[in-house]
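ok posting inputs for the magnesium ion job
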Amino acid sequence: MSKKVDVLLGLQWGDEGKGKVVDVLTPRYDLVTRFQGGPNAGHTLEFNGQKYVLRSIPSGIFQGDKINIIGNGVVLDPALFKAEVEALEQSGHPLTKRLKISKKAHLILPTHRLLDQAFESAKGEGKIGTTGKGIGPAYADKISRNGLRVGDILHNFEAKYAAAIQRHKDILNQYNFPFDITELEREWMEGIDTIRKFELIDSEHVINEALQSGKKVLAEGAQGTMLDIDFGSYPFVTSSNTICAGACTGLGVAPRTIGDVYGIFKAYCTRVGSGPFPTELFDATGDEMRNKGHEFGSVTGRPRRCGWIDLVALKYAVMINGVTRLIMMKSDVMDDFEIIRACVAYSIDGVETEQFPYSIEGNVEPVYIELPGWQTDMSQMRSENDFPEEFNAYLNFLEAELGVPITIVSVGPDREQTILR
Ligand code: GDP
Ligand code: IMO
Ligand code: MG
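and the output
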């Protein structure tokens, strides 16, 4: 079997622009799949003057009749899924024929959201800043073999559900967490009815059969490499493997089927929630990035922390994922900057290193180099032939540092503001 699963994933702390680019690339593929995460994701797409935010549904849903699959590695919240489906249907995008759901995907129960809150508040100062969507508790139940899966709604569901909810209530009581799940449960059960309208599949068979018959698959990552449960800034991470290897376990495809790995990054850097961020800016430049880049969470509306691009972290992400093509987003946000800084090393307790360390908490000082800004409005550009000299110099510098070509440049949120090289 030739290599036909291409993976697109975030190289930073999420929100790199994955949704936008998956939509742009979808015409090249037959199947678009999500392999991990859940409604903690918020993937924004803009075209024809409309803006859409997807959370659990793959971003290939707007391009003709391509099949989209929610894979086994995803955790699905029925209530939020229902809201997402209804919003899409109301805007003229019926989904039932084009979206299929793995029976092995795990369900986020109404009590998982409450547990997320209870665990967060118990952490006090050390809180993760989760999206509060029950992601951690749902994955914890999966790993501790207590989870409920989408396929469970087909057989003896009520008993399995009741046992799980009781277990959660007991934990909430231990945490002295006050709760009333009546309304949450009602919405959740309606969501289960919505899920039942979709084809529930053995997605690993469907995907591998598609590959055998020569079809091409795009796997859409959620979150980013620096939020990976193993390689991110633990414990300030999400609860899944966001890296390329996650596509194999989250879809049931063999490593040798993986083809291109698209690594997507912003020309600067953002992070939402708690945790270390060496290049974070607390000054007017950071504010300018936030305001011009509209850096406010698409799920929670929280302001995103902003800073310069971090090549130590990016090189690490390129290594872990085996990135073959880079995609640079949101360079338009820096169109007015006179000087652009890039972190090329960390100074840790006075010792410089280019290797991403075990921990980036504490005494990590970024070592910067400065490049001249291009000071040109690039948002209307549609060809690399129009790129200003300083912008080409920035691209060349990044490619040399990261050792991988930048094959797509995005100069604005719209589908059209995408330049292929
Ligand atoms: P995702 O989670 O990786 O899909 O990214 P998000 O949708 O959470 O955040 C990316 C934000 O940047 C969205 O609001 C996009 O509409 C917007 N965006 C994407 N690409 C560009 C770009 O090149 N320039 C600008 N200015 N905005 C962009
Ligand atoms: P997309 O797919 C940015 C962050 C949260 C928090 C940490 C853990 O849109 O890029 P969780 O709810 O997963 O337990 O939160 O991870 N986080 C994200 N940050 N983009 C995301 O998704 C994120 N999903 C989770 O802010 O710090
Ligand atoms: Mg997002």
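notes: The longest helix spans residues 157-174. The CA atoms of residues 248 and 254 lie 6 Å apart.
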